[in-house]
Amino acid sequence: MNGMTVYIMSTLILILIYLSLRKKIPAYDIFVSGCKEGILLFYQVFPALLAMMFCIRLLELSPFIEWLYALCSYLQLPISPSVLPMFLFRPISGSASLALYIDILSKEGGDSLSAILGGAIQGATDTTFYVIALYYGSIQVRKIGHTLWLSLLADVLAMGLVVYFIYNFA
Fold it and tell me: I need a surface site. Which of 15, 24, 108, 134 has the fewest CB within 10 A?
């Protein structure tokens, strides 16, 4: 860690220890129970993350992206093949699209058109399926009505506008 970070983190830890001793809070027990909850959460989330990583790798190895790129070139859409998977995964998983974006940055650099387009996609769109599942699931709503289709339409419009503005003004 950097010099200033060490001092800030040490100070925060000392403040937490002081406050827990002063208020007689069993900080270690709370810490251990938080670790247990974190492990349980990990076991709940890990299969979905593993499946998502598997699907991303499967998509990268399949000829689907090349077919999609061929379709985009046939339709004369100026979209880089490295950015195409982001269009597919951004509505599904923020971490998957972020991993794809980091891959673009490491391979092509931050000043490339693909990196600029990928960054704009990250900022202009949302993880539609995650948001719908989280918010509707938290209030136990089973019928989502037109929310999914309107949200996906908003994502498609945002992606289209991103491509238009980046290729015309960047």
Answer: 24
pLDDT in tens, 125-146: 988 887 887 777 767 777 888 9
- Compute, in degrees rounded to 10, the torsion defined by CA atoms 85, 94, 105, 1: -160
Angstrom distance (rounded) from CA 124 to CA 33: 38
* Residue type, position 29, single letter: D
Cα separation, 152 vs 133, in Å, equals 14
Q: What is the pTM of this model?
A: 0.63
Delimit the domains of the chain by residue range: 1-48, 63-169
State the amino acid at position 162 in one-letter form: V
